[in-house]
Write a structure and sequence with these properties.
single chain, about 375 residues, alpha+beta, six-stranded mixed beta sheet, 20 strands, about 30% helix, globular
Amino acid sequence: MILPSRDDVSLVELDDRGVLFCEGQQRLYALDSLGTALWSSLAGGSGEDGSARLLIEEMSFSPKEAEDYVSSSLSSWDRLGLLRKSGKIAKEPGSSSVKSSRGEGLQDDVFAFAGLRIGLRYCGPDVAAAVRDVFGHLKVEEETSDFTFDITPAGGKYRLVGPDGSDHVLADSAAVAVWLKTEILDAILRHSSGTFAIHAAALESPKGTVLLVGPSGCGKTTIAALLNAHGWPCIADDVVLIDSRPRQIRGLPLAYAVKPGSWPVIASARPSLDGLQSYQRPDARTVKYLCPASIAADGGPLAAAILFPRFAEGASTTISPVSHVDALVAILGEARNTSQYLTTEAFLAMATIVRLAAVRELSFGRADEASAMLLQHDAF
């Protein structure tokens, strides 16, 4: 008898569908309601005959239809490698430890977030100003840190050296500030076992944590900055940390990178934006860095809502339901840790957060109207 017996395959049921995650393959598989019921029946020990009877009794299959469906499903799963017992299942690569900076001298700045102290040593005022525009609101008056980054001259450019020995030569101070965000995230992930990151903004609403998920250009930064301006404390501007043990949401509350198209609407709520310096990032996009108006004391164990912003010129503002399965697959598609390896534990942690949240798509053409709708306590 063939059973879905790989010990690195996990199933979560969301709504009336399911998602399989195979850790060894690092792949997700979405199942419809019938496939979910069959997998659960087989995994529960009912066997092929018992599972066929389930289809006959509860789904009104004929005996031949039930037998054919079980057989074809097992053949498909076997071809995908989900039923085979692999002799060698890939294990998560070991993570290198972060070197402490204690005893290595004083830092020019120390910033505090994600429960850590991050030190920076600069080589000049220009690069210090660019970095402080992104991180300055998180500065603390301390002389030692958990780890330190050094920025030194490099023939008219800048060299950024991290605590793990990473070494990057960057063209200008704007590039240093952008690259530093990535390097600090990697250092935090190495320091925090069981933590992974997702691409999302996060805020604290009256109903609880709200995640805004989506790629660059979808409007999440504009919506997040407006909600923050109207009283929702910032948890994260662009990267949310998910702790697997315990299941908890944390964030990196850095300055919002606001693009020119959003300057007028955000400046109407945050007039200080007009006076901020603009930077051209390495991706050739111009941004201004707007510090959050308020920051949440900490994240929380659950998300009250997960929103997928979708900006389209001239579109009306609508909020519509999104399948929990589609949401989970979309979020995990960009999840990462330092090893770029998603564990079963991380998969189950994110599935729990998605299952308990209201999941919605926010379509809009005007960010001010969309944020006003979300500020209504019954918007989601």
